[in-house]
Specification:
This protein is of the alpha+beta class and about 220 residues long. It is built from ten helices and seven strands. It has a three-stranded antiparallel β-sheet with strand order 3-4-5. The protein has a two-stranded antiparallel ribbon with strand order 1-2. It has a two-stranded antiparallel ribbon with strand order 6-7.
């Protein structure tokens, strides 16, 4: 039985803050981010015992407590609790673009990011800027250290451990660089154990996206 994990900050919000290129002061990796956010929401629900793995499928177990009604985890729970068990990959892929919008608006309301909108040749253009870049930088440094080692996995904080595993699976560059955690694959697998079916599904989705992009 999973042991509930208490997070200092929701995984979804932390995951969003990892996706900034602070050198260019802008949000990057939109495609990966949407899938990462959905995976993070699923991980929160799995860790608190609201979801369970049923032969590779997400199964609703009991309603979550303490979720903000408009949050991504609350939306994901509503979807899963009213559907038959479906694969983790299915739930990670579903409405991943909307997941970015939902978490973006939440962070903007809390003034952690700023959304700048303008028009270029009559087309709307949106730029997401971190209001506190040091928050993203420090978080990325902590997550990167968790992925690359230095401290035994058993001593990594539970929330940081899961965030690191999911960010590595999504190949978030602020964490793993431009390549991937090739040298630390065994460590990433250890980090991912509490949410293994979700991390595995996310990695396969991102691998497929990368392969498709390379082929194209």
């Amino acid at each position: 039985m999973q042991t509930p994990v208490r997070h200092h900050e929701p995984l979804t919000r932390s995951a969003f803050l990892l996706a900034f290129d602070l050198r260019k002061d802008r949000l990057v990796q939109h495609m990966e981010l949407g899938h990462l956010l959905r995976a993070a929401a699923l991980a929160e629900l799995l860790l608190q015992g609201s979801l369970a793995d049923d032969g590779g499928k997400a199964k609703a177990v009991r309603p979550p407590a303490g979720l903000a009604p408009a949050s991504l985890p609350a939306a994901v729970w509503e979807e899963i609790s009213t559907s038959p068990p479906r694969s983790w990959r299915r739930w990670i892929r579903k409405d991943h673009a909307k997941a970015v919008t939902l978490v973006r608006d939440e962070l903007a309301a809390d003034r952690l990011i700023r959304v700048e909108r303008r028009r270029v040749l009559l087309f709307p253009v949106e730029r997401v800027v971190p209001r506190r870049p040091y928050v993203s930088r420090r978080l990325a440094e902590r997550v990167s250290r968790a992925v690359r080692g230095g401290r035994p996995v058993s001593r990594v904080e539970p929330d940081l451990r899961v965030l690191a595993a999911l960010a590595a699976a999504a190949r978030i560059r602020s964490v793993v660089g431009d390549g991937g955690p090739h040298d630390g694959r065994d460590r990433v697998e250890q980090l991912a154990q509490p949410v293994e079916p979700i991390a595995t599904a996310l990695r396969k989705i991102i691998d497929a996206i990368k392969s498709s992009s390379s082929a194209g």
